Amino acid sequence: MSYPLLVLPFLALTLAATVATARRPRFGQRMISSALAAIALMLLTAVFDNLMIAADLYSYPAEHLSGLRVGAAPLEDFAYPLCAAFLVPAVWTLTERKRA
């Protein structure tokens, strides 16, 4: 299985959960916060993935990648921090109890 196909279920789940919270209070504020968190997480991913790949701590088989890279880091690595930044607040919102 290729890495781009592997991230698709995570992206789909994140999108579905985020859209499900669209009518909840503070949706716009949550999206701004999630976007800022995603930017920070992806910057950290760019820095540390490149450092770990440069240190030869791990590598990816080229035949399983899309071929798009940010430095030495494959683009697919950035899907996980993106999903985390949006999915965690969406799940939190969907599972919180309504206030009296």
Automatic annotation (TrEMBL):
It is found in: Membrane. Pathway: Carotenoid biosynthesis. Its main location: membrane. It is a multi-pass membrane protein. Pfam families: Lycopene_cyc. Keywords: Carotenoid biosynthesis, Isomerase, Membrane, Transmembrane, Transmembrane helix. It comes from the Bacteria. Residues 10-91 form the Lycopene cyclase domain. The chain crosses the membrane at residues 6-23, 35-58, 78-95. The keyword Transcription regulation does not apply. Signal peptide: none annotated. The keyword Oxidoreductase does not apply. This is Lycopene cyclase domain-containing protein.
